[in-house]
Amino acid sequence: MTRIPFPSMNRALVAILRGIKPDETEAIIDGLVEAGLTAIEIPLNSPEPFRSIEIAAKRAPDGVLIGAGTVLTVEDVDRLNDAGGRLMVSPNVDVAVIGRASAFGMVTMPGVFSPTEALAACAAGASALKFFPASVLGPSGINAMSAVLPPDVPIGAVGGVANEDFAAYAKVGIRTFGLGSSLYKKGMTAEEVALRGREAVAAYDALEIA
Predict the structure, then answer these.
(1) Rounded CA separation 138/171 (Å)
(2) Contact status, residue 31 vs residue 55, Cβ threshold 8 Å
(3) Would you please indicate which residues are annotated as catalytic (active-site) residues?
(4) Do 161 and 177 form a contact (C-beta atoms < 8 A)?
(5) For residues 41, 198, 133 and 109, what is the CA-based torsion angle, rounded to 10 degrees?
């Protein structure tokens, strides 16, 4: 199956905005983009998620990847495409969902927790793998599984990952992270989110120096 490659990014950080509302989207997207984030995910269990995704997709400049998380059905993928989203993140491996998203040219990042799931996702054409919850597996667990995975499929650590965890994952070659509650929590102001975005970018950029 054709695989849409995960785009090359200076910072492979995915901002996860679970719970964001449409009327908050513009200001928060602006702040995160200004902070240096280049991939933003709005989970579908947020209020009016497709409306927020449409706002974000129109607001974000070229080179910033906007999409949805918690994508469970091909119908969700169709609506994501209609909203202008180019990133599809799911909590599981569903061949039909990955295939539909790939057919639209979307970057796909399904959730996996085992070598069986990871290899199934690769076979389905996933752009990247989302090891979730990464805090349970830890860098050593993900690293052990990576030995049997295709080297050209990026591995992302998501779930319980914060700025202070970057270095431990980077030591085993993981440079893609999904940031949820450490970056955004429901009810936070755009200024608070932007500040956390700048802190995450600074922590990530420090990895290149270490």
Answers:
(1) 12
(2) no
(3) 41, 130
(4) yes
(5) 40
Q: Which residues contact residue 97 at a Cβ distance below 8 angstroms, ignoring those fewer than 6 apart?
A: 71, 72, 73, 74, 76, 77, 88, 90, 110
Dihedral sign for Cα 185, 203, 195, 37, please.
negative
Q: Which residues fall within 8 angstroms of residue 46, CB to CB, at 6 or more apart?
A: 17, 18, 19, 20, 21, 52
d(CA 109, CA 127): 6
The arithmetic mean of pLDDT across residues 197-201, rounded, is 98
* Beta partners for residue 131, in sequence order: 112, 157
Give the tens place of pLDDT for each residue, 117-146.
999 999 999 999 999 999 999 999 999 999
Give pTM, 2 decimals: 0.95
**CB of 106 closer than 8 Å to CB of 98:** no
Greatest extent of the chain over all pairs of C-alpha atoms, in Å: 44
Dihedral pair phi/psi, residue 140, rounded to 5°: -65, -35
